[in-house]
Amino acid sequence: MSSLRINSDRLNYTLQSTCSQWGALPAPSTGMRRLTLSQEDKQVRDWLVEECKSLGCEVKIDQMGNIFAIRPGTAKDKKPIAMGSHLDTQPAGGRYDGILGVMAALEVLRTLHETKTDTYCPIALVNWTNEEGARYPGAMMASGVWSTKSSTPLEACWGTLDKDGIIMKKALKDIGYLGITPCDYRENGFESHFELHIEQGPILEREKKTIGVVTAVQAMMWFAVRISGVEGHAGTTPMTHRSDALVTASRFITAVRDIARASELGVATVGVINSDTSSQATIPAGINFIIDIRCSTDEMVDQLAGQIFKRFHEIVEQENNGTSYKTTRTWGLPESKFHETCIEAVRTAALKEVGADQIMEMKSKAGHDSAWTSRVVPTSMIFVPSKDGISHNPNEHTSPEHCALGAQVLLQSVLHYDEQQKLQAS
Amino acid sequence: MSSLRINSDRLNYTLQSTCSQWGALPAPSTGMRRLTLSQEDKQVRDWLVEECKSLGCEVKIDQMGNIFAIRPGTAKDKKPIAMGSHLDTQPAGGRYDGILGVMAALEVLRTLHETKTDTYCPIALVNWTNEEGARYPGAMMASGVWSTKSSTPLEACWGTLDKDGIIMKKALKDIGYLGITPCDYRENGFESHFELHIEQGPILEREKKTIGVVTAVQAMMWFAVRISGVEGHAGTTPMTHRSDALVTASRFITAVRDIARASELGVATVGVINSDTSSQATIPAGINFIIDIRCSTDEMVDQLAGQIFKRFHEIVEQENNGTSYKTTRTWGLPESKFHETCIEAVRTAALKEVGADQIMEMKSKAGHDSAWTSRVVPTSMIFVPSKDGISHNPNEHTSPEHCALGAQVLLQSVLHYDEQQKLQAS
Fold first, then answer.
1. Less Cβ crowding at N or C end of chain B, within 10 Å?
2. Where would I find the Peptidase M20 dimerisation domain in this sequence (chains A, B) (predicted)?
3. Of A163, A199, A257, the CB nearest to B236
């Protein structure tokens, strides 16, 4: 195995300085607001493209604005080994979710360039568009299109609207990232895909481990719930004569939490709620909310959803107040099992860096672009600890040491995989 | 007592045709959307002013856009006997709430004009601005300013914003109703104020009565509730480690309903809810909602609010999940007791029209402009039945017969009060 080492200071300086410049929330917050295809996103993308070109990379932009920066290898017929993640953030997110993975990939390219290291396969940095799904609904959107396994095809994604009514295709064009490379793994593919990411949960920290060898991404499903009641005057309608959609919704939301906690099958969250009425003196007649359910396996998701919906039925029967409801499955990502060769590359690299007692195998509880790439190319992920398990929050934090360690394991995983490719060819 | 009779067909035709022209929701709905100071409101106001002028009335517009159309009396030193209500509606309201009161007042003026009836006191029609508080927050806003008893003074009302950021003073000016008459009962007062209104509740219908002699308006209070939790990733944060503001809010909202129902002290409603987050994959950290509490007396409002807040405290202790909350009293209207002379005028008129078995004395469970006027001039109200008790809803309905009956009782109440004024002077 190679003795190459990434430059920890350079990595951490680059990560912090680019965050400070493009999308930082006002101090003293260390959080980020870098919505996909915003001006801040354009600026960090432009910078990244220039950096990669200066390292001798060829840069391609595809139809979804995904950036592929490819450093050539010695083999003539090999596709790149990709290191992908995303530069966009939640509306009030942190500096590590996604950004660390891209900055670490850049640090790997810088290390290879600086040391004039030849690899057998080309090595690529990939920035996936709209992983967060925060501005345009649909998390991991562009890697989903690329994998062709998502139920949302290119044209449908192009046609989605943000809350200001700006169509995604226009947003891509406006910032200069509506590329011509097909967004399709069959025409622009990889040998494999590695992704360094923060855990976004408390497990590594709690177990006193520094590297997570990720073997899968848990299954997830979203359901839209619509509750209908009857509008009425808040002063004159007796308590016993009300068909209050918000009361039914409140009982549903409490039930989602109670059942997820009791079942121990996984997690279920209501993150967004909207009411039709904006009048304080009117009994609400229409409530919409979304349930996000995540479990280790697809079967467990179905089981937990089934328990929740059974309880909804019981609540409406019990209320017997004329409210009704409808649930619609709006999005899902089945369980993603990673590739043994890639998992082995990460395990080998991590073992060398930190030894067996610092490593744990784990499933990702969050969705990642790697969940999509794993469906069409060998994939795995590397996790580093999140302080207090906090993520999707300005207080998200991963120490500089853990960031550097993750980048080092990414470098060695890629080199190990590359070495095996070379051995197989010879 | 006078033998004058209003013209039922003219009243009902005027009510329906003006609703159809200005602010009707698309058919087959018979509902209304005539937000205060909107174009629809301007059009119906302009029409009303011209109608009143054609009946020989002097028209004054005050600083809050209130319209006063005054038909002179024979006395030199008397203020007008006012018949007030409002032409604005909820965003999805009906054709009777407020509108009936103004159209009935117009019908009274038409009847007096047509029959060349001389009254002792001047008789005024009043259209109060922004009774609904639907576009600009603050129900019964302009009658509150006029009474000088509201905690919200003129300048504060002028400065309120609608959801598009349009300041109220500009909205008044834009439709030509920023008048110069002082909005102050001391400078532009009445002898008394009568208001015909639909009940907006089920009691008259249930009790098979046709006229409600209203003796008071129940007490009401609004509280803003803010719940704070900690944002977190919906996939990676274990169910047991969550500080979910929406779960706490849901338990609170259910408790508001449960306690109001069990206590039988009055009604309590959560009509508006908002979440800080718009991300489906984030545990909500900030929820706002408003509680509307209404009871017969101020003491009962305090008692019900106390029971609700005690339960909030218990819920947060029980959840023990790091969520916290704050309640702020944002608005209140103490119980309004009407004036015995005005109540007696309504009772006398109603007895003559329908007899004792069709009448009931009652408290209003909804707020009305008369609640404010009653604080500074003798006031009472007349109620007519609401079909199924439905209001603040496009299906709000009062039969043409009941509309006409209400207008007839309004006419006779005003004439009876006027006669007494004349008797006292002689």
1. C
2. 219-314
3. A199
